[in-house]
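Next comes a single protein record:
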Amino acid sequence: MKRTLIGAALAAALLAAGTSAAPAAPAPAPAPLSSSAGARLADSWQPPLSTRGRYVVDADGDRFKLKSVNWHGAQGSWTGSGDIADPASHNAGEKSDQMPLGLDRTPIASVLADFHRLGVNSIRLPFSNEMLHDQRPVPDASVAANPSLKGRTPLQVFDAVIEATTAEGFAVVLNNHTNTSRWCCGLDGNERWNTSQSTERWEADWLFLAKRYEENKRVVGADLYNEVRRTVTDDANWGWGNDHDWWTATQRLGDRLLTEANPDLLVIVEGINWQGIPTDLTPHWRPTLEPARTLSHTLVASHKLVYSAHFYGYTGPNHTGATGTGETHDWRYQELSRDELFRTLYRQAFFVTGDTQRHYTAPVWISEFGIGADETNPQGRAWFANFVDYLVERDADFAYWPAVGFTGHGRWKLLDYDAQGNRSGVLDGDDWRAPHWQRLVDSPGTTGPVPVADTWDMLNLDHTDFVQSLRARARGDWDNGARKAACPDGQRLVGLSHHDGRGLCSDAGAHGLAKAAGALTVVTDERYVTDGDWAGGYSKLQCPGGQFMIGYSVRGQAVSAVLCTEAGRALPKTGRTLWFDRGDNRPAGAPGGEFAEGNYKGQCRVDEYAAGVAYTGAWGKSREPAALLCRTL
């Protein structure tokens, strides 16, 4: 997509140095299936969706590969200058009026029929927060081909589009694209989820929308925000704990969506799109998903997380995509050799699916990529062919940007419609992208049942509590004044860091170990150390017999308590003391990945459970975790 480029806008900025509340009424229930193609698609998968390792699966545990397109428009098309009523003031002259594009030119049913012809099974629907609150009816002319939508607000039109789309069997992913209804993605007031609004409003809007479509099970995902990037003065970050911390914002909202609004949704988190000032003299880069290697998300439901990333040939790992003002001498993706491109894609995003048995292992959805039908640059065309090759090779989930547009108004879209509703594009024989698109949607890949995968998750007490067990949350504050962490239900604690309160959880080697509704025990002293001194001279917190560790708490760096739960079967007491106060002590291969970068770590094997932790308050030791009691499962 030919977007506004942050490099040019940021450079220029540095050189220069009537809404109301959204209606509470729920969306209409999903309509009956309306076509034979829709019936076939609907029969091919059963909602809701979840994840198993690197794959998205349906309710039957079968692979559901996200073969998607972006139907944009509801996020806004105004460029930010000129008369908003004038199409010339909108990107490519395509005035959307805060609705998915094309409703003035062709019936919704015709667009959906063309989506079936494209071979996709899912639609990414961008929206703006401003659109949700706009109570003005859409212009009649903007829905001329869909007269039943006259008099409706933009949100009510959005409802109708979702109702029709899911009735045709498509999965719908909601994408919060912008705060305000402006074309993305430069210095436009939409750089972060909270640039032109508060984080509280962002969260409230998402909870409202998730509840609105809760009964429509083919609304399958919440793509939390689009292309988080630098403002003129500041970067978004990953894990700093402040108001610009994208990891913290998405971790909190993801949990809230699953616990307060709709437990069936996939929670989709895109990496950071840009950090730094793009000049040849200043640091700058496109982090994408690289920060997740050492700090990934752990949701209260681990099988609901999907990561996403965007790639366009004219941008690069250190290139904004700008030409002229704001352009740097960094490589664009389309300037990389095929081998270097593939290595870069893996480093920036595909390690998440390629590195198995890690805390960050998850599906990756390439939720935007694209190129123009009028592209003549041989490098651009070669990049697209190579990129499609890589998606096919990696059996990747994808979403092309964009699906729908107006004939004669730029040629990035797969489908263009003229004023009379006549279609042109990849389905109509004169588009060089068509064979690449066809081999992408037809590419072989994993299908059918996906085996249940071991789960690995990390715990992070860098800034605040991190209790990811719903059972532990229901128990209340089990160590007042301390920072507390607990594994998601169904997992056990298998690793700790010597410093900074990081932990590692897993169900590897013992799926379903916990007793249903078993007791939770908070241990703050040595009363359960009754079967031998396994760490002489050290204080020990040990679970009662038949229980295993699922959580812990710290005060500063000092151990405060451990949280244990009952096993559903007898647990052996044979085991070993695992010291990690003078160096890492982990199984071969370090399963689970790097969960506490720069700190010593201890980790039990997959055939063990953690039954206790030892520490000392001796001079210079600060009561930090020093050893784990690892017992055989």
Q: What stands out?
A: The two ends are 53 Å apart (CA to CA). The chain has eleven helices and 28 strands.
